[in-house]
Amino acid sequence: MTQSGSNSQSNSASAPTRAPFGARLTTVVSQRGPLCVGIDPHPGLLTQWGLADDANGLERFAMTCVEALADEVAVLKPQSAFFERYGSKGIVVLERVIAESQEAGAIVLLDVKRGDIGSTMAAYAAAYLTDGSPLAADAITLSPYLGFGSLEPALQAAEKSGRGVFVLALTSNPEAPEIQRALNGPRSIAQTVVDAAAERNAGVRPIGGIGLVVGATIGALGVDLDALNGPLLVPGFGAQGGTLSDIRTLFGKSLHNVLPASSRDVLKAGPEVFALRSEALRTRDAIVSATGHH
């Protein structure tokens, strides 16, 4: 994604405001390297940074992250829950994080993990994936466990506006396998999700706009990603125990579409802007070196 392509709102109601998400993500990753940094202002990190656990501390934390990272890192991933817990003041800060990160050229992936049906899913799509909404990000995370088809309003809104989604497929939490590894006929539930995303991404170049979330610490992959033709958000390396070697082993032929995500390992370097930026760049360079990703 070029600087001029960063989610600026258009005054034209008829013309698309941005290129398709897969193309924008591919461009910005080629320019800035394959790294997604989470902006996760949980109470422990606020304390570690010497900040109060209130809306003012939240604002200082979040905007320091934006200052340090938004003009260097390809993707920033604010976790909505850590803003929502402060009520309306927290949402105001989240709106600033989204807008100012996009202005600096970063792609903003809002981690909301929404999953609902019908008009409610359409309302979430209006909030996060539609031009004119103050919470509209470049992409959001979605949960498909009411059925992949329940995501349709969000998928349509994302495609229409040049945004993307990252659908939970194989997550690292210990409770996940009872659902995600369960069989749906001959396939696992996770493979059903992969296949549905691949069907939507088929034929899109350079890649489709429907990505998947696959944890770095899941052990054996157990699904076939060859046909996905979309990005893979891979949290869990670093503080959560995953390594870059794990990522190489897990993803093999799909490695070129992997976007490793780090939160705590980078954020612990704060609160100084220079230290935070330096840690993010060190992490990015390590990913490039380990994966051969250019």
From TrEMBL:
The keyword Lyase applies. InterPro entries: Aldolase_TIM (IPR013785), OMPdecase_AS (IPR018089), OMPdecase_type-2 (IPR011995), OMPdeCOase_dom (IPR001754), RibuloseP-bd_barrel (IPR011060). Pathway: Pyrimidine metabolism; UMP biosynthesis via de novo pathway; UMP from orotate: step 2/2. The keyword Cell membrane does not apply. It is an enzyme of class 4 (lyase). Its EC number is 4.1.1.23. Residues 34-279 form the Orotidine 5'-phosphate decarboxylase domain. It holds the Pfam family OMPdecase. Keywords: Decarboxylase, Lyase, Pyrimidine biosynthesis. It catalyses: orotidine 5'-phosphate + H(+) = UMP + CO2. The active site is at K113 (proton donor). NCBIfam families: pyrF_sub2. Belongs to the OMP decarboxylase family. Type 2 subfamily. This is Orotidine 5'-phosphate decarboxylase.
